[in-house]
Amino acid sequence: MNKDLLNTLLASLLILAIGLLSGYSLGYYRGAQSRFPEIQTVADINPGVATLKLDGVANGKLKGQVEGREIRVVVAPQDIRTFAAGSSFEIPVNATISSAPVASEIPADAQFVASKRGKLYYSVLDPRANEIASQNRVYFKSAEEAEKAGFRKPSSQP
After folding, report:
1. Which end of the chain is more exposed for a tag (fewer CB within 10 A), N or C?
2. Is the distance from CB of 124 to CB of 106 less than 8 angstroms?
3. Which pLDDT tens digit goes with each residue over 104-145?
């Protein structure tokens, strides 16, 4: 091979290696120096919508705040909690948290529901209560109140 050709190839490889090394170093330096945009909170885009802001878990309790408006949370079958807007809350982590699809329609003091077209009443947490059309629902504060209105307890539990 020609000596000049060999020198040209070595010079080209050296220039290429220096270019790659410089480009990598410059890119690494710029990446290390650049900052990501700071995450900012924005105003609530849906004021008036009940919002649970979770702060985390401490001492076995789920903690947070309620914003927007009052909210009801079904924690366990006989544990329906109401939290006022602007208040903080604590719910034991081991509690079963669920939300019935009709929870927003249930009056605050209601524990039982029946259908205007039926003969049975159910706990508002009973899955069968969710099958009652909203326009046919009748709510009661107690089982006694439901029975006085002519409804009876179902023979089987869900």
Report:
1. N
2. yes
3. 577 878 889 999 999 999 988 788 888 888 889 999 999 999
Sign of the C-alpha dihedral computed for residues 123, 84, 71 and 88 taken in this order? negative
> What does the block give as tokens for 68?
């927007």
For tokens 């709510």, name the residue: 139
Q: Are 72 and 81 contacting, i.e. CB atoms less than 8 angstroms apart? A: yes
Structure tokens at 13: 């490889």
Residue 1, token pair as written in the block: 């091979």
The contacts of residue 80 (CB under 8 Å, 6+ apart) are 72, 73, 74, 103, 124, 125
Query: Could you tell me the residue ranges of all domains in the chain?
Result: 1-36, 44-99, 100-158
Which CATH entry fits the domain spanning 100-158: 3.40.10, 2.60.120, 2.30.110, 3.60.10?
A: 3.40.10
* The two three-digit tokens of residue 111, written as one number: 């524990």
H or E segment to which residue 19 belongs: helix 3-33
Task: Please name the residue that has the structure tokens 């059309």.
Answer: 133
Query: Between vectors from CA 138 to CA 73 and to CA 108, what angle results, nearest 5°?
Result: 30
* pTM exceeding the 0.85 threshold for the entire prediction: no
Give the closest residue to 55 by CA, choosing from 84, 86, 92, 90: 90
